[in-house]
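Intended use. Records such as the Ionic transporter y4hA entry shown here are meant for training and evaluating sequence-to-structure methods. They are not intended to support clinical decisions.
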Amino acid sequence: MSSHTAILPRWTWIAPVLAWIVLLVAGMLPNAVMLAASGIALAGAVFAAVHHAETVAHKVGEPFGTLVLAIAVTVIEVALIVSVMLSGGPDKAGLPRDTVFAAIMIVCTGIVGVCLLFGGVRHHTQGFHVQGASAAMSVLCALSVLTLVLPNYTSSVAGPGLAPSQLAFEGVISLVLYMVFVFVQTVRHRDYFLAKPDSADVHAPPPPTRVAVFSLGLLVVALVAVVGLAKKLSPAVEQAVAQAGAPKAVVGIVIAALVLLPEGLAALRAARANQLQTSLNLALGSALASIGLTIPAVAAVSLVLGQPIELGLAPKETVLLALTLIVGVTTLGTGRTTVLQGMVHLVIFAAFLFLAIVP
C-alpha cells in the first residue's frame, strides 16, 4: 500500500473505485440490482468526495478549499447538462434553466436552511463576515435576475428565449461577474471569506502535500462517479415521476440534489463545527458557480450548434426566486444567525418542493 493511501482512511479511496466499477458494469446487471448497486455506490462516492474536499480545503486554506469543491462539482454538472442537451434536441431547451433554478433553490433555501438550523441548535447563534456574504448575495441577485427573469421581458425574441446577440451578452456578463467575484474572494478581499477560529478543527495540522494532491485526484474521480451514477439513475427517476403523475421538472430537482449532495454534506459538517463562514462559502459559491459557469457554456453550445435554449422562468418560479433572494439578503445582512432564519429558509424550500410536485 502506498504512503498516500496509508494516511488516508481506506474507505475514502475504495468507495470511488467501487463506484466506478458499478458505473462500468451497470449495463450488464438486472434492472433492480443495477438500481440498488448504483444507489449504494452513489452514497459511498458522495461521502468520499466530502472527505477529500475537506482534506484539500484544510491544506490550501479558506476560501480556496471551498472554491475547489464548488467549481469541480459545477464543471462536471455543466458537462452533464451539455451532453443531455446535445442528445435531447429541442425537448431539452429548458433543461439549463430548470437545472440552474433548482440548484439555486436547493442551495439557498435547502442547504443554507439546514446549516443555519443545525448550527443554531448546537451553537444558539453563529457569526460570519457580512462583507463576504453581502458580496456573494449581490452577485447572485444580479446573475439570477439577468439570466432567469429578464429573458421573459425582452422584445427582440418572444420570451423565454433570447436573440443570439442577447444570449451572447448573457453568457459574457455571467462569466465576467463570476470571475470578478472569484478574484475578490481569493485575492483582493480574501479576509472577508475567512472562517472565524472558533473550532478546534482550525488548529489541526494540515495534511502533507502529497496527501492533499492525492485527495484532489480522488475528489475528481468521486465527483465524476457521482454524476455518472446520477445519470444512470435518471431513467428510473423519470419513470417514477411519470408514474406518480408529477411534472417533469421534478426530475431536474432530483438530479440537481444528487449532484449537490457532496457540497451539502460538507456545508452541514462545517456548520455543526461552528464554521458557518465555510458553510456559506460552499453554499453561495456553488450557487454562483452554477450560474456563472453553466450559462456561458450552454450559451456557447446554443450559438455554435444552433441548439434551442429557453432561459426565462415561469411566473410561479419567478416569485419563488424573488422570495429566496429577498430572504437571503435579509438573513445575511446582520452577521449573526439563529434557528429562526434556518426555519424560514427551510419553509421556502418546502414550498419549492411541494409546488414542483403539485403545481
